[in-house]
Every structure is written in C-alpha cells, then in structure tokens.
Write a structure and sequence with these properties.
The protein has about 425 residues and is an alpha/beta fold. It folds into 2 domains: about 1-155, ATPase, nucleotide binding domain (Nucleotidyltransferase, domain 5), CATH 3.30.420; about 205-390, Nucleotidyltransferase, domain 5 (2-Layer Sandwich). It has 14 helices and 14 strands. Adenosine-5'-diphosphate binds near residues 221, 293, 339, 344 and 345.
Amino acid sequence: MLWKMRSEGPLKVMALNCGSSSVKYKLFDLERDEVLARGVAERIGLPGSRIIHASGREKESVFTTPLAGHQEALACVFRLLTDGTPAPVELSEIKAVGHRVVHGGQNFQKPVVVDERVLSLLEENSRLAPLHNPYNIMGIKACRALLPGALQVAVFDTAFHRTIPDYAFMYAIPSEYYERFGLRKYGFHGISYQYVSRRAAELLGGKKEDSRMIICHLGNGASLCALKGGVSVDTTMGFTPLAGTVMSTRCGDVDPGVVLFLAERENLSPASVLEILNKKSGVLGISGLSGDFRDLEEAAGKGHARAGLALKMFVYSLTKHLGAFVAVLGGLDALVFTAGIGENSPAIRAAVCANLKFAGVVLDEEKNRIRGKEAEISAGSSAVRVLVIPTDEEKMIAEEAGALAKKYAHLLKREREKTG
Ligand code: ADP
C-alpha cells in the first residue's frame, strides 16, 4: 500500500507546480472552499533563494534561506505550514497532493494516483518535455518522502486535449514517426482550459452540445483552444509548448527551415537552438526590450518602434489563429480571455476583438476596462458573448486530487469493512 489515509476530517489538499527553479503551492480545504496557505519557493539551487509564504488571509512574508534542491524547498514549505499562524496545519491532515505534470504523452488522459508504474511512465515521458517533466517528477518524489501518508496525484496539462481528432493532431510527416516516437500535437494549458471552460459554461447558462467557444490563455506562455460542446477540438500548441501563437519569449510557429538554417549557420547544438526559440524569442526577441506586456505597452505608448511592432505581431498572430478556429468551429458563440495578459490587458483584448468583427464580436469599451475579475465584456448587440475569467489552475489540480482521494477513501473503507 502506497499510502494510508484517514477517511474522516476536512479534505485538505495541496496543489503543487514545480518548475526548474521554483515551486508554487496552494493548500486548500476543499470542503470549506478555503485557501489555507499559498506561496512560492524561488531561485531553488541558485544564490538568493527564498520562500514567499502566506497563511490563510494573512499578507505574504518573505523568508530568505538557502534552498539547494526541490526536496529541501518543500521541507521548508512544510515547516512553514506546521508553524503557520494563525492556523498551523497538521501535515497528517493533508490527504492528497496534486502535482501539475506538463506532459502526459499518450499514456495519461486523466489524473492518476502515482505508484511505481506511473512514476516510470512519467520518467519515460520526460523525453517529450525535457524542460518541464523532470522538475514535476522531482516534486512528486520529494512529496512521497516528506508526506508519506498523502496520496500523490499527477494532473496533466495535456489531458484536456484528448478529444482532439486525429486529422487535427497528426503532423503531415511519415506516420512511422508517430508510431515510433508519439510525434503528434498534444496541446497544453489543459488544466486552465478545464477550469475556465467549466466556469464559462456556468456563466453562460449550462453546457450546450453544439456550443462553439474559443478560450485565449494569454500568459507568458500563450495558447488558444477551440471547444465544441465544451470539449477541446483543437489547440495552438503542439508536440511542445513552443508552437502556435507568438508568446512572451517563445517564437510560436516558424518555418522549420528557419530552425535548421540557424543551427547550421551559427553552428548551434539542438539545445542551443531550443534555448533561443524558447527564451530569447517572442515579443522579447522582437522588441529587444522585455517579454512583459506592461513594459511593452508603456514603451510603445512612448514611441518605442520595436515594442510597437512586437505588440502588433502578437495581436496579428492571435487574429490569424482565431480566424482559423472560427472556421474549424463553423462560427463562434463565445470568446473567453484568461491568464496574465487576457485578464489584465484591455488594450490587447480590444485589438483582438476589433479584428473579430467579421465573426460578430462587438466589445463594450466600458466593461472591457476590467482587470483581474470575472466579467462579460461584450456589447448587448454582440453575436458572440465575450468573457474575462481569471484562471485557477491550482484549484483545478486540488479538485482533481481531492476527487481521487475521496474515491480511494471509499475503496479503503470498503476494504477495511471486508477485512473486519
Ligand atoms: P505564466 O504563463 O508565467 O503563468 P501569467 O499568466 O502570470 O504567466 O502572465 C504573466 C504575464 O501577464 C506578464 O508577463 C505580463 O506580460 C502580463 N500581465 C500581467 N499584468 C498585466 C497588465 N496589467 N497589463 C498587461 N499585461 C499584464
């Protein structure tokens, strides 16, 4: 038995998002719908590491402390939880930890309880997402060691896109590469799409089988998802989170010939080319200034030509992909903006919506001023309802992990009853 769990008491579940040098966490009491603690451990393995932590509704405090690795960072986080004021957390009360895992590959199409078999499949999948999955796995291993009584659950960013049909997910390259390596479109941001699409259906008055929706997840990583009847039918990211629209520091779609040309002419290794396309491209690469839209909007306002060009390219790239998805869906009923830029930039939303006038989108300028809050921002005359919905990936991860914890608690109870 991997874990032991008490079936009574509040359902406390932790959501974890482990990156290369950071660990973001949020602890929920799902039954009370409360956040008990939240924070981020930053600069893990680097000088100047620290944890920014808040308990309950308290303000955040910064703890500067050396954090050599993910396990050490999580051990510190758990210490902060148990020492927490005003309400210290008993670690044995945490029934499950939900881990964001970026790439589920072809093996995982829904959240799973992590056991040895799952862990080795996840390790295999690391080949598909070398920049993300290894750190997600480190988080899982650290939590197994530090919280042996909690159920470890992997929740995948790719799983929401399991409904994309083969003619949309296959690449037109020899099919042996799909068979041998699983080379296909997977899509990402699925946890965000799951949360936002559920919330959109609630706000729009229920899921309709033929509803046509596009969600724009515009954060540092940006992608679009086309949904029919609430399920994903296509998305802009692909085999990796590098494809699709122009992003903060990622290039989005480029001619594959560009990649080969760069490698040859600059004598670069595949890893160096990937570094350029992932970290030095996008609006950062174009502007030469910043990947942050606040900086770019300010600079463009002061006449910085390349910041202006970067913003134009971002909006153009979104427009082109949106147009394609309107065609894929055969029209559009709802358009939803989420994540950092989608939730906070009226200027980007207005520019994108102006370009979708042909599809019946009319924005209410006054309502579009909203930042960081749920709102309907379309005009009464709009044929398409336009919404802003702040995403909550941690809540979705915790709910998925909590659902499995409940399911397993029930099985455990039955098992106990059977054995007397
Ligand atoms: P991540 O993909 O890292 O989770 P987020 O969803 O947090 O990213 O989005 C972060 C980005 O959101 C920032 O880099 C910035 O470009 C953008 N952003 C945040 N606030 C604003 C704002 N007020 N105006 C314009 N852009 C914003």
